[in-house]
Amino acid sequence: MTEKEKMIRGDWYVSLGEELFNDRQNASEIIFEYNSLHPREVEKRMDLLRRLFGESPKEFYIEQPFRCTYGYNIHWGENSYANFNCTILDCGRVTIGNNAMIGPNVNIFTANHALSINERMEGLEYADTIEIEDGVWIGGGTTINPGVRIGKNSVIGSGSVVTKNIPENVLAVGNPCR
């Protein structure tokens, strides 16, 4: 099994290999082009993201600048929006539901690293999925940690650090978010 296959399955993998490096480089090049385009070139920007993402609908919008690790693990919902400086470390699958709103400076992190310094130096890590369900609003400056599901129609207050699942139809805030 390749390191990429291990990563996608959520198993421990080594991130330093050539295949994953090349995948990250590909994403970096597309994101560089995306972030360099004139703001009026909306269709060209969206086409670049459609090429990058694992799944993307006809109608969605992401403000510049945007950052991600691989792109192919991002599954973006219909009519969903992300404001400036959205960062998605998509070593694991990230699902953004339909009609979701993501505020500025939101971080979505799927990567987990080994606790042992020796294992970290070897590039050993694993990824957990993140699911942001339909109708969710994520306030600006929020960080969403690996393995979290945010339930349908919930609102996450600005500046929150989401470390655990959030149920449907609630307002959750804080560090840790609850």
Describe this structure as you would to a colleague:
InterPro entries: Hexapep, Hexapep_transf_CS, LacA-like, Mac_dom, Trimer_LpxA-like_sf. This protein has 178 residues and is an alpha/beta fold. Helix 2 packs antiparallel against helix 3 (42-52). It has a single domain, classed as Hexapeptide repeat proteins (UDP N-Acetylglucosamine Acyltransferase, domain 1, 3 Solenoid), CATH 2.160.10.10. It contains 4 helices and 18 strands. The protein is globular.
Q: pLDDT below 50 for ≥5 consecutive residues: which ranges?
A: none
Report on the biggest sheet. 6 strands, parallel
Structural class: alpha/beta
Shape: globular
In oligomeric terms, what are we looking at? single chain
**Under the CATH scheme, which class?**
Mainly Beta
Overall mean pLDDT stands at: 97
Q: Strand tally, please?
A: 18
Number of helices: 4
- Under CATH, the topology can be stated as UDP N-Acetylglucosamine Acyltransferase, domain 1
What is the CATH superfamily label? Answer: Hexapeptide repeat proteins
Number of domains: 1
Strand content: 25-35%
- For the termini, the CA-CA separation is 38 Å
EC number: 2.3.1.-
Protein name: Acetyltransferase
Domain Maltose/galactoside acetyltransferase: 4-58
Organism: Clostridium sartagoforme
